[in-house]
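Justification of computing resources. Each target in the renewal requires a structure prediction run like the one illustrated here; the chain below, 158 residues long, is used simply to show the kind of job we budget for.
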Amino acid sequence: MSARGITVSVIRLATADDAADVARLMIGFRDWWSRTEPPDAAFHEDVGRVLADPNSDFLLAGDPPAGVCQLRYRYSIWTGSDDCWLEDIFVEEEARGSGMGRELMDAAFARARERGCRRMELDVNEANAAALALYESLGFSAWSDPPGGRNLLMRRRL
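Resulting structure tokens:
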């Protein structure tokens, strides 16, 4: 239990009935990064769309929910199975240090395995030391294949 009385070990797959909690937590994540976009209304609209997508999941942690994890799935010819992309993970300030982030990650691994995934990938800002330490403790690493240079996540807005 955290100071707010949140039960940590309750982790579940979000449904359409959870859209308001998912949007609230995603807005909290945006605010944690001191960003102003997307606007709140976009989160409230778009969460339902992602919840309806069979290639996406949100996991909720806590009762009441204080953590969220967004997973995306796509087929990879490199693994011959779906890959899982951990798009977002966020735990509210009051629940940090309770183990909720690690429990969400464990649940994400289990969900990806249930769906037949053989690989999980994510991106992390190297300035986010707590997240980086969590991911490294769970076996994630920057990698180079073939050797000779780092693999970089690159992005371009269209």
